[in-house]
Amino acid sequence: MNRHELASIIDHTLLTPEATRQQVDELVAQGLALGVRAVCVAPSFYPLNTYGLIPVTVVGFPSGAHQAEIKAQEAARAVNDGVREIDMVMNLGLAKQADWTGVQAEIETVRKAVPAPCVLRVIIESAALNAPQIVAACWAAEDAGADAIKTSTGFHPAGGATPQAVSLIAKTVHGRLAVKAAGGISTAEQAIALVEAGANVIGTSHAAEILAAVEE
Predict the structure, then answer these.
(1) For the whole model, what pTM was predicted?
(2) Active-site hit among 87, 96, 143, 171
(3) Would residue 112 show up in a list of annotated catalytic residues for this protein?
(4) Whole-Å CA distances, 157 to 125, 152, 167, 181, 183
């Protein structure tokens, strides 16, 4: 991939709890200069002028251990504030106990609050799941009407995106849903490997460093 191609699929991200409005404004300016597709910041920063970059935020972040109705309310507020893509964190406890009906139900609840053309991604925290759980989480998200799967929050101690997880997710959704790789992506080599594994979007707080290492 050349620099332009990679930039066009990057969500330029700032989700640290101590982030300030000034840092968010600087993120947007940097994202415009880099030519990324989107900026992803906490919902409390919206409404936000992203100057044509896609506005993305997170819901139920980072634990996912919220009532489905609260996630839905958070998502609805974000959409009202101008957000166009929502990355919601799946309830990992439900996944770990194999309550896939419960997982699907909570995603459906949020989906109702995020009507098309707004995009709903489900963060499954893939590093905390085994292969059968990743597959089941993808199926639940698809059945609930989600548009995409995202690997990770980047905050879970189990880790972030890996090519192996992205490949499994991509094979499971088989083009029906998009795949966003995020969590721990700090080099061009990592980003390109994840794209080659099947990621359509890369979420990273290291866009400048990654793109600086890629040829025009």
Answers:
(1) 0.97
(2) 87
(3) no
(4) 10, 11, 21, 17, 11
